[in-house]
Design a protein that fits this description.
By secondary structure, this protein is α+β, with helices and mostly antiparallel strands. The chain has one domain: Ribosomal Protein L24e, Chain: T, CATH 2.30.170. Helix content is about 35%, strand content about 30%. It has a two-stranded antiparallel ribbon with strand order 1-2. A hairpin with a 4-residue loop joins strand 3 and strand 4.
């Protein structure tokens, strides 16, 4: 039988895959970590990726594209450009 903490962990684990909290550009996903109390009691927790909805100007398409991406991917897009990052990740921007 599962206790409440284990049950919550299982539910969060399934929500991770159902909600799709993965960055399509970098492939970043949730990290399993320990939550450590003052008494050094460790319980499992998930550290989620910082995903943001962002409108990004796509120069080749001459329009804005609404994306859900991590802040790390946003910095990479600002540095290398949207076309280069999307091509490397294998994402077709015409569908968005």
């Amino acid at each position: 039988m599962l206790d409440f903490d284990q049950f919550c962990y299982v539910i969060r684990f399934f929500l991770l895959f159902l909600a799709g909290r993965i960055c399509p550009f970098t492939g970043k996903k949730a990290n399993r970590a320990n939550k450590v109390s003052f008494s050094n009691h460790k319980t499992k927790k998930l550290q989620f990726v910082n995903l943001q909805y962002k409108r990004v100007w796509w120069e080749a398409g001459k329009r804005y594209v609404k994306l859900r991406l991590s802040t790390k991917a946003l910095k990479t897009i600002e540095k290398n450009g949207l076309d280069a990052v999307a091509k490397k990740a294998g994402i077709d921007l015409r569908k968005k």
